[in-house]
Amino acid sequence: MSFFIAGTGSALPGTVVTNDDLAKFLDTSDEWIYARTGIRRRRVLTDERLDDLAIRSARIALEDAGVSGGEVDLILCATMRGDTFTPSLACTIAEAIGSTAPAFDLNAACVGVLYCMEVADSFIASGKAETVLIVSAEAMSKLLDWTDRASCVLFGDGSGAMVVKKGEGRLAGVLSTKPDSRVIRMPNIEGMNSPYNKIAQEPLAMHMDGGEVYKFAVNAMGRCIEQVCARAGLAPADIDWYLPHQANIRIIDASLKKFRIDKSKVLTNIADYGNMSATSVMVLLDEFAKKGTFRKGEKLLFVAFGGGLTSGALIVRWAR
Ligand code: UT7
Question: Which of 135, 222, 231, 237 is most solvent-facing, going by the fewest CB within 10 Å?
């Protein structure tokens, strides 16, 4: 027994930052950013807290699923950094929705939601949970070097959520890592005023070798699609909807090219939101679920790559 997706939600910051806005303080342009990435604009946190976005998206998903906070058996939150180290974002959400279920954060960078879905599957399969709330929340704007035009133009902030319940839905999943501490690296700064610390502080903010990430991403997403389809006994052409991580439209196109998939099956919203790390696939799912795109019984394939380096894919049959 596995899970099906019973409800979805999302919450985004109110502030929209266009490529032209960035060109006011960076040596860049809408033409360069759009042509190289497919991004036109992104949402950025200004006077809102990440906690509040996460709670909002969780509440929307719970309402969509018709589930109360007290009925949730496990809360998982995919994030690289919440507003506080403790309580975790998952515990902050639990407090807000009135849940005493186990709650913890999980960091698998942009693949975090897929990792959470596999953890939820394990809890449900072992009888430890029947209803799991999965939330993603990322404040990328607070982790970036805003003087580095090669990375800061790529990202946006946001939160998404889904409720999964015991039942038939998940058909197969694959998760993997190709450990590499240099290609994408985001050091933290906390604790550096310890009088005992003898390690020099690395500069805060994202350091990324874009070309290397690009190559990894295209290979990893292609490999994950092949593996997850093989595990489900399906061919890539049997999938009804592809929900790829929204990092770069060229990465999405290049990783799917060899499967000769009808492009209308590949869902994207990168133009409006950029790369929101773990949150990207959640907001994509919520947006197209709310539009009524998915029909009962259709097969959705999630695929993502990210810092770590992590990658993964999941196939879920739409059950609503
Ligand atoms: O979770 C991690 C997610 N990270 C990613 O997904 C990143 C994956 N990588 C990429 O998406 C691409 O490698 C980038 C979009 C980052 C870069 O695209 P590219 O086609 O690989 O460009 P490039 O790095 O080869 O740079 C080409 C030129 C360079 O100038 P020169 O050396 O040719 O004079 C860059 O300095 O573009 C320049 N450049 C920019 N120009 C205008 C780099 N960033 C910008 C910019 N605006 N924002």
Answer: 237
pLDDT at 301: 98
Rounded to 5°, the CA angle 304-214-244 comes to 25
Q: What is the pLDDT of residues 212-256, one digit of tens each?
A: 999 999 999 999 999 999 999 999 999 999 999 999 999 999 999
The answer to whether 245 is a known catalytic residue is yes
Q: Which domains does the chain have, with CATH numbers?
A: 3-168 (3.40.47.10), 172-317 (3.40.47.10)
Based on the residue annotation, tell me whether 110 is a catalytic residue of this protein: yes
* Distance in Å, CA 279 to ligand 1 centroid: 22
- The residue whose CA is least distant from atom 43 of ligand 1 is 150
